[in-house]
Amino acid sequence: MYLNSFFDYVLPLLTVAGLLLINASRISSDKGVKLSLPPAALLAIIFMQQSTDHQIPNLSYLTFLDLLYLCAYALVFVCFFEAAICK
């Protein structure tokens, strides 16, 4: 049960976050390559969160999964600004 939930909800989110971190750590002279992943990751995270909201009952407090999504959104924006500002 717990392992299945990990593979359904947490692992895809960690995969997207890992791809963002790998993209941010690369030194690239082409800004277009670094700027293309954060918007795509943002869309993926939004659709993953909508999917989990339909499958898991709503609670009146933040769960661990909600905190992971908040961290993932923050990582997307940090990576986007890093790619836009840095050379």
Task: Characterise this structure.
By secondary structure, the chain is mainly α. It has helices spanning 2-25, 31-55, 64-85. Helix 1 packs parallel to helix 3 (64-85).
For this entry, give a set of tags.
87 residues, mainly alpha, elongated
Morphology call:
elongated
**Intertermini distance:** 45 Å
**Number of helical elements:** 3
Mean pLDDT: 90
| Largest beta-sheet details | none
Low-confidence stretches: none
Per DSSP E runs of 2 or more residues, the count of β-strands stands at 0
Rg estimate, integer Å: 14 Å
Q: Which range best describes the helical content: under 10%, 10-25%, 25-40%, 40-55%, 55-70% or over 70%?
A: over 70%
List the helices and strands in order.
HHH
Overall structural class, as computed from helix and strand content, comes to mainly alpha
Architecture blueprint of SSEs:
Layout: H1 2-25, H2 31-55, H3 64-85
Helix pairs in contact: 1-2, 1-3, 2-3
In short:
The chain has helices at 2-25, 31-55, 64-85. α1 runs parallel beside α3.
